[in-house]
Amino acid sequence: MSQIKKLSAGVTRTDKAMSDGRTIRYYDTDGASRDAVDQRQKEDQPTIGELRFDSLVNEWVAMAPHRQTRVFLPPKELCPLCPTVGESLTEIPEPRYNVAVFDNRSPSLRPPESGWELPKTQGPQTSTAPAAGVCEVVCYTSDHGKSFKDLSPAQVRTVLEAWRDRTAEISKLDFIEIIFPFENRGEEVGVTLSHPHGQIYAYSYLPPRAEKMLESAQAHKKATGRVLFDDLLAREIKDELRIVAQNAHWVAFVPYAARYPFEIHVAPRNPVPDLAALGEEACDAFPSIALEVLNRLEGVFNIPMAYIASWHQAPVKHDRDIMRLHWEITSVRRAPGKLKYLAGSESSMGAFIMDMRPEQSADQLRNVVLGK
Amino acid sequence: MSQIKKLSAGVTRTDKAMSDGRTIRYYDTDGASRDAVDQRQKEDQPTIGELRFDSLVNEWVAMAPHRQTRVFLPPKELCPLCPTVGESLTEIPEPRYNVAVFDNRSPSLRPPESGWELPKTQGPQTSTAPAAGVCEVVCYTSDHGKSFKDLSPAQVRTVLEAWRDRTAEISKLDFIEIIFPFENRGEEVGVTLSHPHGQIYAYSYLPPRAEKMLESAQAHKKATGRVLFDDLLAREIKDELRIVAQNAHWVAFVPYAARYPFEIHVAPRNPVPDLAALGEEACDAFPSIALEVLNRLEGVFNIPMAYIASWHQAPVKHDRDIMRLHWEITSVRRAPGKLKYLAGSESSMGAFIMDMRPEQSADQLRNVVLGK
Q1: Quick check: A137 and A101 in contact, CB under 8 A?
Q2: Are B136 and B200 contacting, i.e. CB atoms less than 8 angstroms apart?
Q3: Looking at the structure, do residues B103 and B221 belong to the same domain, yes or no?
Q4: What residues of chain B lie within 8 A of the CB of A221, using their CB?
Q5: How close A259 gets to chain B, by Cα (Å)?
Q6: pTM for the complete prediction?
Q7: Do B216 and A56 lie within an 8 Å CB cutoff?
Q8: How many contacts (CB atoms, under 8 Å) link A and B?
Q9: Among B202, B213, B223, B186, which residue's Cα sits nearest to residue B325?
Q10: Neighboring chain A residues of B64 at a CB cutoff of 8 Å
């Protein structure tokens, strides 16, 4: 039995069970009926991994040894994210789809048995815990050869609706602390499947960088009574020289203290804690700026650009008044044939050295002549 | 005029001026006389970069735009770290050398004009500052085709003496906060020169990861009265199952919460704040364990292994009683043909997902049969 749910912007969601018990969700705007059945053999789900506390720096590290055997850059005809055609049984039973989101087959984090609680952290004595969380795969289109930047505005709107729906639904799980939709693009950043897709990681603990954002926001609130991200956005709008694109609802800029050769932050003018809280008009204005930004990035060198695109959202249960939704796109490509590597200073010390001024990077992005 | 200074273990240091005003220091055990003169044209030194405060996470980011044009994987005959032979004028004027350390030609950080002070941090209002610090290049051997693991124990002892000497001397500079000797090895981690060498970055600010180590150490001291790293080392010795190598003065282990497929920490049994404070016996016992560890790492897949080797030391001016010297070697190689990438979760959230249990990694390292 399919469940059909109506979302915004005419998007419907249809849920189907996969043969191994996972769920796939189809997001459609054309009222397509989703009846195809997963014909694959049942297989055992991997067991849950382990969280270990690295007390040297007070951070959780997730251990997911079952991921060692995951699929690695398969040829196109074996792509598990393509629709199922004939005998090629993929993750997606339907013969075509618009946007589909399914539970990751090799999840780094997965829902725990009931009664789960994050252990109290207390230095080296901190006990281990099951690596609780949710990992989902977001397929942007059934067209294997496309990239996010090639989607139509309507398709981006459907992807946004899927992200919003997943954020709203995963937020209800009591073991979730924060939800992180992201995309890794390009073999340079370790992508193992080239089909256009992103992922959602929902963590049961506050990851280190989110924790630092929260601490900074709390300190700023205490010192000034204001919301840190709002002040940062106001500075970017006032400085103007690092702005890359904007419309009535969104601003895209290279941040003042960018740490990658190309780094673009995209923020709604009307601040919200997460994707689910975005207003209808902001949602409708998102596809144009998203596509402009990604096409400017691609246009800098006119080669496929590796990037990581990350949605930062407020934690699910607390500090939602001081943490703001924004999208960070970072690229390690500093020239055709040259990448920025996170080596000794960045990787071991966390000290970023930027070879390019953010203003120069913003200039290059603005100067791209967009097609069409 | 050369200045000659006597160090431990029969090592002497001879300083020479380079044509552009930088300094090169030769470390020898054979009383070699270092008279060769840098014949190259004088050239202007790059200007100092800029520190910008990323108030979103309260971290300094260094901007060094002059580094864009640095030398990138030159052919062997143009290697700037080889000795000068005939017309090929390199960074090292002598026709052969043991260990040489010189000021980096494209430094990310450099000594400031007098009167420098790190600005008070206060959110988005924090002012910029000159990117003060010291960047040096440490050439391990004049033999272009070798790697650290191929050095003789005597040569490693001389490298160690050079690190110790640089740490002691740079510590005296009033604008230095912490000193970080490290090696990036392999194109996979962005090495731009394949000649066996490491670097020293001395920062005028506490880098984010060092700051987290310090905060954890302070919290542990307050909670227990003990030194965090000593407790962590004691656990590794007690647990035993992650120990990779040891001798009377050093212990090498895969840490309990390792975040890379291969990660080895090497610590002196007798805790010290930094390299300069190491006792004579610990120094003499270092080459054997260093070579064993790096050869085990190389032996896992019998292919050249990309790694980052990082010396973590106490800050120069404070908390020297609770921060401990240790050497962290991390490799992103998870299999021949497969790397671990720091993608969305690691890069944007700081949340590491480890595909291999640290105990399995330690097993693989221990099972390597060493040659000779």
Answers
A1: yes
A2: yes
A3: no
A4: none
A5: 7
A6: 0.95
A7: yes
A8: 250
A9: B213
A10: 353-355
